[in-house]
Amino acid sequence: MSAILLLMEHDVMLSDGAHTLRPLAEADIPDLIALASRNVHEYIHMGVAPTAEVTYLHPLRAADQMPFVQLLNGELAGCTRYLEIRPVRRSLEIGGTWLAPQFMRTGANRTFKRLLLAHAFEVMGTSRVKFKTDIRNLRSQVAIAALGAVREGVLRKDRYRLDGTARDTVVYSITDDEWPSVKARLPHTSQVER
């Protein structure tokens, strides 16, 4: 449990050599904005325009989040984060993830997720990791299911999109009991660093 509390200090770096997750720094924000394609934030920001403040500065300052930049062979590829970190419940969410189009469909997302999941279950002692996505975001649903996450259900009218329409949210999870079999299906990583 104490490992979960340490995570909020924002000092965790995860790597397998080619794929690296390091804490998001304020200095990364201009490069992320330049990298993001027009549709990257389509499903991430609900009800609030995707500004630098909302997208990157809020997670940097939130006590229950830890944002990472994703690097592939040293090149900035996107960002992701742990959020809704709940030490008492031993749970967290992985979300706010996006990759620049040139890194999509390369297998990078699965490897980055494996690093995050390994750290959550093996270092932090998390018992449940959840993923949430807009019901219209079929690409994300396919990617989450491909990780081995179990679809738990749909939260109806959970949020509102930028255009004012109600969003139904699909919820998935992986538990610590499922982690060994999920881990065996994901791309191998050589090391998880702290």
From TrEMBL:
Record PROSITE patterns: GNAT
Name of the featured protein: Aminoglycoside 6'-N-acetyltransferase
Keywords: Transferase
Organismal lineage: Bacteria, Thermotogati, Deinococcota, Deinococci, Deinococcales
Transcription listed as a keyword: no
Residues of the N-acetyltransferase domain: 19-177
InterPro entries referenced in this protein's UniProt entry, alphabetically: Acyl_CoA_acyltransferase (IPR016181), GNAT_dom (IPR000182)
Gene Ontology MF, one: acyltransferase activity, transferring groups other than amino-acyl groups
Gene3D superfamilies: 3.40.630.30
Protein's UniProt keywords contain Transferase: yes
Domain of life (superkingdom): Bacteria
